[in-house]
Design goal:
With 227 residues, this protein is α+β, with helices and mostly antiparallel strands. The chain contains five helices and ten strands.
Length: 227
């Protein structure tokens, strides 16, 4: 396992965004600069996480969070800026807020349920946001086993361009949703940030797994996982 610098970012709630008592974790350059999606999928599977999508990102996207599940994002290609911790209108009204992190190929992020994130300033910059894997972004359909899932991901890897990330979620968790926190879009979190904060902690860090050293990754920085 490579030596990895893990940066923890603690993000307090805002009027529109629950964020989380758990820190956002950034695993800088954990994977090679040309990551292998099939190998990453195998690692995530061993650690109890399910690969659900590879997206190619456009120039920007709305700030949003997931109220039902934690998320692991791994950069496969290109670079971008990701702003965490604040809704778009809050950022515009205050002229700042949250944190901004440069994401590059080989980086991984563990995003707690409730933490807002917005990808922008993508390089190289294709024209459109696009789901590159089969299905609707909530899993890999028609793949009865891990070998076929890996084959699908490796085919996608051959056509990557622009800024692309792979997304995974704890096995058995609720489907991810897309909540902006703006007026009329509060998802499951209307008046109930506490519900978002109670999403269970998975058993293993998606990246470090059972090899996590004391205090290093998710189990150390979030508290021990349950199952």
């Amino acid at each position: 396992m490579p030596d990895t610098t893990i940066t923890a970012h603690h993000l307090p709630p805002t009027p529109l965004i629950p964020n989380s008592p758990h820190p956002l974790l950034h695993y800088k350059s954990h994977f090679p600069s040309h990551p292998n999606a099939g190998e990453i999928h195998a690692l995530l599977t061993r650690n109890g996480w399910t690969t659900q999508w590879i997206y190619r990102y456009g120039p920007t996207q709305p700030s949003h969070y997931h109220s039902r599940t934690h998320e692991c994002m791994i950069v496969l290609h290109g670079s971008a800026t990701i702003r965490f911790g604040i809704a778009d209108t809050e950022f515009q009204d205050s002229g700042g807020g949250g944190i901004e992190v440069v994401a590059e190929a080989g980086d991984a992020f563990l995003v707690p349920a409730g933490v807002a994130h917005k990808t922008f300033n993508t390089h190289p910059q294709p024209s459109t946001f696009k789901l590159l894997t089969p299905g609707d972004g909530h899993g890999l359909p028609h793949c009865p086993n891990e070998r076929e899932e890996r084959e699908v991901l490796e085919k996608v890897e051959g056509v990557l361009e622009g800024f692309c990330m792979l997304g995974a979620y704890p096995r058995g968790s609720a489907d991810w949703n897309f909540v902006t926190g703006e007026e009329g879009d509060v998802g499951d979190g209307k008046g109930g940030f506490e519900k978002v904060w109670e999403v269970p902690v998975p058993g293993l860090d998606p990246i470090l797994g059972a090899g996590e050293k004391k205090g290093e990754g998710m189990r150390g920085l979030w508290g021990m996982g349950g199952v």
